[in-house]
Amino acid sequence: MRTVVITGMASGLRLEMAKVFRENNLNVVISDLEEEKLKLAKEELMKIESNGKIKYFVCDVTNSRDISKLIKSTKKL
């Protein structure tokens, strides 16, 4: 199954993109700096029927360790 990673996505256009990917049965990994917003976004995405998985990850894309953790976590899907 294909996987898409969207960073900085807790709301707005990126959330709408995640919905489309979810509707098309892709695994969706969402990341942002704010965990509470990610939880809310995941709840909204879970309302969409899909064969894909959803995972969220708190990540600062300016931090190389966070990026490495995001990549490792995504590969486990």
Element layout with pairings:
Layout: E1 3-7, H1 12-23, E2 27-32, H2 35-46, E3 54-58, H3 64-75
Parallel strand pairs: 1-2, 2-3
Compact description:
It contains three helices and three strands; from the N terminus they run βαβαβα. The protein has 77 residues and is α/β, with parallel strands linked by helices.
- The N- to C-terminal Cα distance equals 9 Å
In this structure, how is the largest beta sheet organized? Answer: 3 strands, parallel
Q: Name the helix and strand elements from N-terminus to C-terminus, one letter apiece.
A: EHEHEH
Strand proportion, as a percent range, falls in: 15-25%
Return Rg in Å: 11 Å
Shape: globular
The quaternary structure here is: single chain
What average pLDDT do the residues reach?
A: 93
| Number of helices in the DSSP assignment | 3
The count of β-strands is: 3
Helix content: 40-55%
Low-confidence stretches: none
Spatial arrangement of strands, main beta sheet: 1-2-3
